Amino acid sequence: MWKVPALAHFEIRNTGNQPLLVTGVYTDCTCTVAAWDKQPSAPGATTTLTVTLDAETLGTFDKSVYVTTNAENVARRLRFSGKVMQKVINYDRDFPHKIGDIRLSAENLEFDDVKRGEKPQVTLFLLNAGKKDYAPELLHLPNYLTAKAEPATIARSCRQTGGHTQKVTSCTAWDSPNPVCIFRVLRRPREQRQ
Fold first, then answer.
1. Residues 22, 34: Cα–Cα separation, whole Å
2. Rg for the chain (alpha carbons), in Å?
3. Which of 12, 54, 97, 156 registers the highest number of CB atoms within 10 A of its CB?
């Protein structure tokens, strides 16, 4: 969260047969500060390197920390990344159901009685909280239902921001950086089924 320092913890295990001493830690920007135990670690023991990001800048970050030890002459690069946001977003209210990295606005879809000529529609909202693009599908759909996803693929990230329940054909965000998909299901009246 913005202006709330974030911590990254790296565990360093001594896999050698001599004491391991972290001799230096170098960060790639002044927005990060590293702290570590200055005492050697015995063989088989672990020590923790903690890096603090000041979170003064909004947006995504990808930071590197370079660690040198008495075990080798080469610095090892450690990376951490994330996103600094202005406020914490809780998806549990709008997307209470989870299937892996995909969050759903409802667990099931229900239609009331459908009369001749009516074409009721139910909308299910999906949010991709994962790191890969996702193309939603409904499997084993009865012949009296049709379904359409807008957009057809939910990107892993979206730069748009918007209101709470906008129905649009591109990414929609619930005050968040994560993309949302609208899945519309249409039910034909019983008389029109084949």
1. 12
2. 25
3. 12
Residue 150 CA to residue 156 CA, distance in Å, equals 15
User: Mapping DSSP to helix (H, G, I), strand (E, B) and coil, where does residue 89 land?
Assistant: coil
What's the one-letter identity of residue 30?
Answer: T
| Token pair listed for 36 | 């570590």
d(CA 25, CA 45): 19
Q: Kindly give the pairing relationship between strand 145-150 and strand 102-104.
A: unpaired
Beta-bridge partners for 84? 59
Structure tokens at 49: 């390197």
Alpha-carbon distance of 108 to 98, in angstroms, equals 12
Residue 109 scores a pLDDT above 90? no
The pairing of beta strand 145-150 with beta strand 180-187: antiparallel
pLDDT surpassing 90 at residue 53: yes
- For 15-76, the three-class secondary structure string (H helix, E strand, C coil) is CCCCCECEEEEEECCCCEEEEECCCCECCCCEEEEEEEECCCCCEEEEEEEEEEECCEEEEE
Question: What's the pLDDT tens digit per position in 26-46?
Answer: 999 999 999 999 999 999 999
